[in-house]
Amino acid sequence: KVIGVGKQWYQRRVAITAGITNNLRMDPTQVEKAVESLMKHCRAKESSSLTETDAHVYVQVVFKRVPNKTKHPVKLTLKNSIYNKEASVCLITKDPQRYYKDLMKTNNISVAKVIGVGKLKKKYKELEAKRILCDSHDVFLVDDRVLPIIPRWFGSYFYRKGKAPVKVNLKKKNLKQEVESCTRSYMVANLGKGNNLSIPCGRVSFDNELLSENLHSALNELCANVRPGWKNVKAVYLKTESSVALPVYSALDSRAFKITE
Questions:
Q1: Is the pLDDT of residue 18 over 70?
Q2: 130-158 per-residue burial string, b: 16 or more CB within 10 A, e: under 16
Q3: In angstroms, rounded to a whole number, what is the distance separating the alpha carbons of residues 81 and 20?
Q4: 228: preceding bond cis by omega (within 30 degrees)
Q5: Would the pLDDT of 92 be above 90?
Q6: Residue 45 above 50 pLDDT?
Q7: Count of C-beta atoms within a 10 Å radius of residue 241
Q8: Between these two residues, 155 and 14, which has the higher pLDDT value?
């Protein structure tokens, strides 16, 4: 039984997660203008450079107060993949490894590599081997039954690369849907370490509509999982690693953050 404030929070979280309501107080027009302006700037810069790559686009959230540190990373499932191609997925499972390779094949699930935890500890023990593994794949899905031992083994390199392990439930009935959902997910591992948070929501090459959808879904998921939700959001920006941050929302004075034509 959930009572008092806890009940209100629980009901709001369920509603947001299910997509029944949207408490985000952002002006949709402002979001569209921010996406359009950033993409126009980045694509123009990219077309005039021989060295620029298809950069990541981030939604940057500034909190009023530093959120409480979470015991485990927070999983944010976006509406669309953040990759401009089919993501290379590495699945880390319980032993025996062969069973889960066959399970993926039986369910017609495409993963680039399946590694049992026993093989992981033996073959990828050295730091250089871990770095090569990290750089070889876009997403690392980890069987939730072995997840507690993985972060310490991964070390800081995976997290610096934005490849925190994403937990997956391999006992789900609709296993293909579960894996595909987790492939679109991003693990926020640094909550409670500051009042700024950057979440990847796509690439410069993405359609504007896809980026807008991912921006909204990222904020919905964040506010549903991190208390006290939207009330603690001071400002929202959209940026790449090398661009200026374009304002999308401000809790202080939205008039000062308007993007004009």
A1: no
A2: beebbeebbbbbbbeebbeebbebbeeeb
A3: 22
A4: yes
A5: yes
A6: yes
A7: 9
A8: 155
Token couple for 246: 């374009």
Measured CA to CA in angstroms, residue 18 lies from 59, 140, 184, 210, 224 at distances of 22, 25, 17, 20, 10
State the SS3 of 132-146.
Answer: HHHHHCCEEEEECCC
Residue 94 has a pLDDT of 94
Structure tokens at 21: 């309501």
Q: Which two tokens stand for residue 120?
A: 């992981």
- Residue 60 dihedral angles phi and psi, to the nearest 5°: -105, 125
Q: Tell whether the model's pLDDT for residue 172 goes beyond 90.
A: yes
Is 168 buried (19+), middle (13-18) or exposed (0-12) by CB count in 10 A? Answer: buried
